[in-house]
Amino acid sequence: MSRTRLTFGTPIGDQQHTPGAVIASYASDIDHSERAKTMSTHHDLPVVVGCDGSFPSLDAVRWAAAYAAERKAPLRIVYAIGMAAEFGLRAPYAPVDDEYERAEGEAVLADARVAAESVGEPGLGGDIGTELVRAAAIPALLDRAEHARLVVSGTRGHGAFLRGLLGSTSSALARHARCPVAVVPGPGQDSGPVVVGVDGSRHSALAIEIAFDEAEQHGAELVVVHGWSEVFRYAPRTELQREGELVVSESIAGYGERYPEVKVRRVVVEERPARRLLSEGERARLIVVGSHGRGGFPGMTLGSVAQAVVHGATVPVIVAREPS
């Protein structure tokens, strides 16, 4: 069932959402049955995607629609019309033409629905919802991420300045959303491996969980990357190499039994992690990273590796964020 919901002029905080769980964090002491049980609790939550009418944002809509269809999940497309005033593109004292802005938003959402339906109706009976909300894009999408299985954003909008705004939206989601975030820089590709970075942290454990699921979903090879740099060398190279290999082995322990069809290639190298992830990602269908790694500190919202990958990748990136 397709439907449109208009929340024009309604504060973000007043929106009601279907309660549900989001992907939980996976500490090393949680057994595999608990991981699988936790992952299953969010299957009916929607995939949420923001759209501003630009070609890149429509690419994000198509990617989100395909992701939702593969998982038989509902799709929610959000257009936020308050961005112009929020970022000074319209003077705060200028009159607001509600009729025009509403019509423009409805036109954008109509195009977005066509884009979504072009890749096949997402699951649960073709449940595509569109929402026109009077708010800035960032708070609107963060609010809806509270009860989503994944939130999706493109990386560029109309014009040089608006490209920065949409980049700010995807960056803010990657830092603050309370569910995994997909940043889609373009149409993506339907072949190639899934690439995931690991460092032994609980954040990379969640990334591994997502990456195995994605690799199985697409029948793709999984490339597990651990990089260490001479800049941070505190022990002989041979010891750091052994430590890296141990990190990878421990990170994927038990997954062979759960995902017997997934072929795994391990990459442990003396190289900056982000650089190697981007290199491997050039031929990939998807890169998955944790929101931050072992070097993170309490309250840190996005690590340097995740940030570098999100900004530098030419393929979709999932940042494995967890509830805070």
TrEMBL record:
<dbReference type="InterPro" id="IPR006015">
    <property type="entry name" value="Universal_stress_UspA"/>
</dbReference>
<feature type="domain" description="UspA">
    <location>
        <begin position="193"/>
        <end position="321"/>
    </location>
</feature>
<dbReference type="Pfam" id="PF00582">
    <property type="entry name" value="Usp"/>
</dbReference>
<protein>
    <submittedName>
        <fullName>Nucleotide-binding universal stress UspA family protein</fullName>
    </submittedName>
</protein>
<keyword id="KW-0067">ATP-binding</keyword>
<dbReference type="GO" id="GO:0005524">
    <property type="term" value="F:ATP binding"/>
</dbReference>
<dbReference type="InterPro" id="IPR014729">
    <property type="entry name" value="Rossmann-like_a/b/a_fold"/>
</dbReference>
<comment type="similarity">
    <text>Belongs to the universal stress protein A family.</text>
</comment>
<keyword id="KW-0547">Nucleotide-binding</keyword>
<dbReference type="InterPro" id="IPR006016">
    <property type="entry name" value="UspA"/>
</dbReference>
<feature type="domain" description="UspA">
    <location>
        <begin position="47"/>
        <end position="185"/>
    </location>
</feature>
